[in-house]
Design goal:
The complex is a heterodimer of chains A (385) and B (144). With 385 residues, chain A is an alpha/beta fold. Chain A is 41% helix and 17% strand. Classes of the chains: A alpha/beta (385), B mainly alpha (144).
Chain lengths: 385, 144
């Protein structure tokens, strides 16, 4: 995948924040299950179904271990982070949100952690409040307690901003929220592969990332199911249905069990490399990239948090981001252009969006240097006009 | 003025000189400078084409049975693309515009070399131009 050429140029893939490439181990596992072990889980009494069920439940255990949850039934498989948040917004809202209640998000959230809550607030006539960030892209945590009151029912925020790269001090924030009796949801979509996460140490009440909704047992037990269908039921009559136990209550229908097995393989791969080693390497990439961009003098970086992940949003002065993006593409470089599903972040800066390079373990400083020559090329193309 | 097909062929010939898309982008940048620019006063939401990722403003005026387009964009390559469209379609009768097949877009590979969202933007530009043609055509028929 990464060694291919696009437009006859070696591919430089700087868009892992949107979709990361899979290691061979994951692709092989997914292929093997599709070709040898594909079957319906939790239903059959035959060999294949048993094997598939076992693989699926093993995957749940791998995820549990990876985030150090207490119970594997606190791990719900979903289709993705967006579905996890929508599920929670629905189920949590059914039980805990009534008219006049308040939910707090932050100014740097991805649309997926804004819109489901907005929809919930519209349904229940509740209020959505926003914790702002400063011009460096650092959350103004000191303003948090001002937002808290007896009507606050949930705080939901991202661990790492998908636009600014900011790593938020979530442990400290969770502590403050709990002091005020407010549960917290952490969006770990951008952090799960870059930083080690221990849900018991953090004490977060909910955590979401690709394919996973984690929740503390006491909440998941209390929440109503999100979707009805097969596997999530206990007893069904036309008058009434009783629901299955956790985690199955939240897994209606045939789940993407091979996806779950693939996710587990990815987590095991990352654990094998070591999250600390990955983080250290990415820190080097970030330092190199930032230094290089700053040397230009006419490149503006959005997101200057001292605690930052390898996500770099920037603009080249007086050159439209889409002009630059089109040329990068033809030079074999994959970057993202636009608002990156976080329009409020750009409203903060009074612009439409940015170019975004998001790097990870398979990227190199050589690629960064090549990228910088591409920036020069862009400048020479558009500045003369 | 040369017929639409002739202008299209001119553009095809110009584009075929270049082997790769970097050179074609450079050429679009050159063309962007020849775009008949819209009155800055009209660069507001009323003249904005919806469906483009970058901002594109388009204005049409009717003179002696022909529609004259002016436009602008905040992105230069987009400006080059709209300059191409205007070169083919400006100063034409509504009927000519409505009947134009615009095969040159396919032939020079413009659509394939834009991302799908930008290709949609290109379609939005063409749609807006055709809407103007339709409107002036209807107006003309009503007056006659």
């Amino acid at each position: 995948m990464l060694s291919q050429k696009v437009y006859d140029k070696p591919l430089v893939y700087f868009d892992s924040g949107a979709t990361a490439q899979k290691p061979r181990q994951v692709i092989e596992v997914v292929n093997r299950y599709h070709s040898e072990l594909n079957s319906s889980i939790h239903r059959g009494v035959h060999f294949l179904s048993d094997q598939a069920t076992q693989a699926y439940e093993n995957a749940r255990e791998v995820v549990r271990k990876f985030i150090n949850a207490v119970h594997s039934y606190e791990i719900i498989f979903t289709s993705g982070t967006t579905m996890s948040i929508n599920m929670l917004a629905f189920s949590f809202g059914e039980n805990y949100i009534k008219e006049g209640d308040e939910i707090i998000i932050t100014e740097m959230e991805h649309h997926a952690n804004i819109v489901p809550w907005q929809m919930l607030c519209n349904r229940k006539k509740a209020l959505l409040k926003v914790l702002p960030f400063d011009d460096r892209g650092v959350l103004m945590v000191e303003k948090l307690t001002e937002l808290f009151n007896e009507k606050t029912k949930l705080l939901t925020l991202t661990h790492i901003s998908n636009t600014l790269g900011t790593i938020n001090p979530i442990k400290e924030i969770i502590k403050q929220a709990h002091k005020a009796g407010i549960p917290v949801m952490i969006d770990a979509a951008q952090s799960i592969q870059h930083a080690s996460i221990d849900v018991q140490d953090l004490d977060c009440d909910f955590l979401v990332f690709s394919g996973i909704l984690y929740g503390k047992e006491k909440y998941l037990e209390a929440l109503p199911p999100y979707q009805g269908g097969g596997d999530m039921v206990d007893l069904v009559t036309f008058e009434k249905t009783t629901y299955n136990v956790l985690p199955f209550k939240f897994e209606a229908g045939t789940t993407n069990y091979i996806g779950a097995v693939g996710l587990a393989a990815a987590l095991e791969y990352i654990s094998g490399l070591g999250l600390n080693e990955i983080a250290a390497y990415e820190k080097e990439l970030l330092a190199h990239f930032t230094k290089k961009l700053n040397e230009f003098g006419d490149v503006t970086i959005y997101g200057q948090s001292p605690q930052k992940s390898c996500i770099i949003s920037f603009l080249i002065d007086n050159i439209h981001m889409h002009d630059a993006g089109m040329v990068f593409d033809k030079l074999g470089i994959a970057v993202r252009v636009g608002s990156h599903c976080a329009q409020p972040v750009w409203q903060h800066f009074g612009i439409d969006g940015s170019l975004r390079a998001s790097l990870t373990m398979y990227n190199t400083t050589e690629e960064i240097d090549y990228f910088c020559t591409a920036i020069n090329k862009v400048k020479s193309m558009f500045r003369t006009s | 003025m040369a017929p639409i097909q002739e202008t299209e062929q001119e553009i095809i010939d110009e584009f075929m000189v270049f082997d790769d898309w970097m050179d074609r982008y450079n050429y679009l940048i050159e063309l962007s400078k020849q775009l008949p620019e819209i009155d800055p006063k009209l660069k507001n939401n009323d003249y904005l084409i919806r469906g483009c990722q970058s901002r594109v403003w388009l204005n049409a005026e009717f003179h002696d049975g022909k529609i004259v387009f002016t436009a602008d964009s905040d992105a230069i390559i987009t400006k080059g693309i709209i300059a191409l469209l205007i070169r083919v379609l400006s100063n034409r009768t509504p009927k000519e515009i409505m009947e134009a097949k615009l095969d040159f877009i396919e032939t020079i590979g413009l659509k394939q070399n834009l991302s799908p969202t930008r290709a949609n933007g290109l379609l939005s530009m063409i749609k807006q131009i055709r809407l103007y043609a339709l409107a002036y055509d209807a107006k003309e028929k009503k007056n006659n």
